[in-house]
Amino acid sequence: MKRHLVFPIHFDSRASALEDEGESWTDQIKTLHRENKEKTIKGLELEFGLRHLETKIQNFRDLGNMPFSIVSYHNGFFQQARNAFVAGSYYPAATGACALAERILNHLIIDLRADHSHTPEFKTVYRKDSFDDWNRAVKILNSWNVLRGDVPKAFLELGRLRNRLIHFDQSVYAEQRACALEAIRLLAQIVSSQFGFFRPEHWWAVKDTRGAQFICEAAESDPFIKRFYLPSCPKVGPYYAVDFIEGGVVFFDRESYPDSEISDEEFASLFAARKSDDVVESKPSADVRFVGFLMNNGRYVSARRAPDGTSWTLDW
Predict the structure, then answer these.
(1) Are residues 19 and 130 in the same domain?
(2) Are residues 14 and 107 in the same domain?
(3) Which of 109, 235, 236, 273 is most solvent-facing, going by the fewest CB within 10 Å?
(4) Over the stretch 27-56, which tens digit does the pLDDT of each residue have?
């Protein structure tokens, strides 16, 4: 009766507030947009300082929104690269984005190789602690059917840019901002497609669950989904509830559901048909269980009922 819920928490959509007004917008929408834009600019001023503020605002706008990622450990590094670009530190931003992309490649191979021990590629990687040949890494991950959509192409393009930035290329001096912007955009494309939320290439998603994304049952055994998505996704029934608190999001659900297996289509139908009275209260009780806590940095911690039967503890 339950499916894993993908819940976006670590992302930054403020760049949308800096976009130009649309000609077809109503006066009410324009007024709201101007208010949001003013708040965003004030926030950037507090975050990055007054000096060269117009340039910083333009840099922030050109970066676009920071995509959601299910993986918590690279969110902070990505934010640092973006912040460096906004502040005008273009070369550190560019090399930081490339370094993070290489870490992601390493994580994918090292974290998934045991699941592919039966493949010819395994014997070439099982003893290595790190990998710096991007072309080979992408080829291996493709053979394991890990990378999806445009991710392989984005990795290879970013790898070529990395070589320009790190090895001696005179043109980088004059093109450092353009190189940094391209590096961060390619990294955002990789993160959004491979680790993101509501993307067309996400073959693993239960269909027709408007407003929420769940992982279909058959995908739970996929090595990539098992290693990278499931640890960050609460497993809930169709009548779960959330509560936003300081530090993150708390999930609640019914204490029990009928002991039966249902298809993804049946789950989607139950979710789509649920009414407000079906949704559990956002506090634990005899009939409502505390499922877990998703922190603002993207880390998820599941909860379990304590031995006394009335309190709950987090599995840190």
Answers:
(1) yes
(2) yes
(3) 273
(4) 899 999 999 999 999 999 999 999 999 999
